[in-house]
Amino acid sequence: MKPETFHRLEGRFLEVVVLYQELHRRPWVFNGLSLSPAEWHLLEAIGDLDGPGVTRLASWLGISKGAVSQTLKKLEHKGLVLREQDPGHGRKIRLLLSPVGQGWYGKHKDWHAEGRDGGLIGLMEAFSEEEGAVLHRFLERFRGVLEKIQVEPDER
Q1: Is 115 helix (H, G, I), strand (E, B) or coil?
Q2: Which of 142, 149, 121, 148 shows the shortest CA–CA distance to 13?
Q3: Which residues are bridge partners to 30 per DSSP?
Q4: Does domain 3-117 have CATH number 3.40.50.10240?
Q5: Do 48 and 87 contact (CB within 8 A), yes or no?
Q6: To 10 degrees, what angle do helices 99-113 and 37-48 make?
Q7: pLDDT of the residue at 74
Q8: Cα gap 140→146, rounded to integer Å
Q9: What is the 3-state composition of the chain as percent helix, strand, coil, each rounded to the nearest 5?
Q10: Is 132 helix (H, G, I), strand (E, B) or coil?
Q11: Ramachandran category for residue 75: left, alpha or beta (phi over 0 → left; psi -120 to 50 → alpha)
């Protein structure tokens, strides 16, 4: 890749990252209740999966079980998620949406369906599995590079 191409790509990538971060700092408010983006992503995953546990949610979302547990406590406190014993697995706990949580879940699905997400779902659906795999590999490699970068402390 030519240096000028790299710099254009780097600039555009940084713009996208900053915009994404800004969007993910904004809470959602519905029926007088505010949810952080982490909370509504977890709520959506619980709605999409059939009675998942913490481990399945962590794997599905690509985050730690600790992060799931912390966010889950907030959703339970807000009355959006319920825990129930899994009848087929003894001590295993299933996570379900409460009636209020189902309202939130439906509202979020409507938001995507109405295209108010800016066309994000349509954009992602337009990629083939192969293109998605290339994008995923790039992001994994890029993350690996960023994790290796060591910034020297200020020597003032």
Answers
A1: coil
A2: 142
A3: 33
A4: no
A5: no
A6: 100
A7: 95
A8: 10
A9: 60, 10, 30
A10: helix
A11: alpha
155 has a pLDDT exceeding 60: no
The domain spans of the chain are 3-117
Distance CA 91, CA 33 (A): 32
Question: Residues 79, 33: contact at Cβ < 8 Å?
Answer: no
- Asked if 43 and 35 count as a contact pair (C-beta separation under 8 A), the reply is yes
Choose between 152 and 92: higher pLDDT. 92
- Ordered DSSP codes for 60-111: HHTS-HHHHHHHHHHHHHTT-EEEEE-TTSTT-EEEEE-HHHHHHHHHHHHH
User: What pLDDT shows up at residue 152?
Assistant: 63
- Judged by average pLDDT, the poorest of 5-19, 34-48, 140-154 is 140-154
Q: What average pLDDT does the segment 63-89 reach?
A: 91
* Mean pLDDT computed over 126-144: 89
Please state, in angstroms and rounded to a whole number, the distance separating the CA atoms of residues 116 and 120. Answer: 9
End-to-end CA distance of the chain: 36
